[in-house]
Amino acid sequence: MSADLPGELDAFRQFIAEQVHRGHSDLSPEQCLQLWRAEHPSVEELNESTAVLTQAIKEMKTGDRGTPVRDAIDELRRKHGLTRS
């Protein structure tokens, strides 16, 4: 648990107030929490993202061109049971 829990709670309260002020009062509490987490990743999430990006850059420098966009989209469609429009 964070050492600055009161500060984090106050920041979250301000975040919620901003969402309401911006006209997002229709968000559920869970949606607000998901949005907060997306905009305020944990140190572990930042470290993981940095490691993934560092590895991707190394692979790119050694000639790996990654997955073509069309293949990636097709895989996402299969994974989520979506069809082409």
Question: Can you tell me about this structure?
Answer:
The structure is a single chain. Helix content is about 70%, strand content about 0%. By secondary structure, it is mainly α. The chain is flat, with a radius of gyration of 19 Å.
Number of helices: 4
In N-to-C order, the SSE pattern is: HHHH
Helix content: 55-70%
Q: Average pLDDT across residues?
A: 91
Shape descriptor: flat
Q: List segments where confidence is low: pLDDT < 50 over at least 5 consecutive residues.
A: none
- The rounded distance between the terminal residues' Cα atoms is 46 Å
Tally of discrete structural domains: 2
Major β-sheet profile:
none
Radius of gyration: 19 Å
- Structural class label: mainly alpha
Strand percentage lies at: under 5%
Oligomer: single chain
Strand tally, please? 0
Brief digest:
The protein has 85 residues and is mainly α. The protein contains four helices and no strands.
Write the layout of secondary structure elements.
Blueprint: H1 5-21, H2 29-39, H3 43-61, H4 69-80
Describe this protein with a few key phrases.
mainly alpha
